[in-house]
Design goal:
It is built from three helices and two strands. By secondary structure, the chain is of the alpha+beta class.
């Protein structure tokens, strides 16, 4: 199944904009997951993608909203 991901890309990704979140809404990532994402970043950059670091969404109050709408 992984062979499909090894094929050449069908488009040019130069200038494609990607949001890069080292931490998602302050939630912890497993160290191995962090390592995989860190290793992927230079690949995206080599493809010509423009990565913009962002803190991600703000989930302040999400717990209260969930309890209210439940």
């Amino acid at each position: 199944p992984g062979a499909a991901f090894a094929a050449p890309l069908a488009r040019d990704f130069s200038g494609a904009r990607l949001a890069w979140m080292p931490a998602f809404a302050g939630l912890p990532f497993h160290p191995e997951t962090r390592a995989v994402f860190a290793a992927a970043r230079p690949v995206f950059e080599a493809l010509g993608c423009r990565l913009t670091e962002t803190p991600g969404p703000d989930f302040t109050g999400a717990g209260q909203i969930f309890r209210t709408l439940r």
